[in-house]
Amino acid sequence: MSAVLRVPALLGVGLVWLYRLTFGALFPTTCKYHPSCSEYAVQALRRHGLVRGSLLAGWRLLRCNPWSHGGFDPVR
Amino acid sequence: MILYTIPIISQLETVMKHVLSWFHTSLGLPWAWAIVGTTVVVRMLLVPLTIKQIHSMQNLQRYAPQMKEIQKKYKGDKQKQNEELMKFYRENQINPAASCLPMLLQLPVFIALYYTLKHFDSNFHPGASANLSFLHFIPDITVQTTAVWGGYVLLVVYVLSQMASTFFMAATADKTQRTLFMIMPLIFVFVIAHFPAGLVLYWVTTNLWTVGQGLITRRLVAQTPAPSLERRSSRTPPKDDGTSGNGAKADAPAPKPAPSASQQPRQVRRKKKRTSRRGARSRT
Question: Which of A26, B95, B127, B167 is the most buried (most CB within 10 A)?
Answer without folding.
Answer: B95
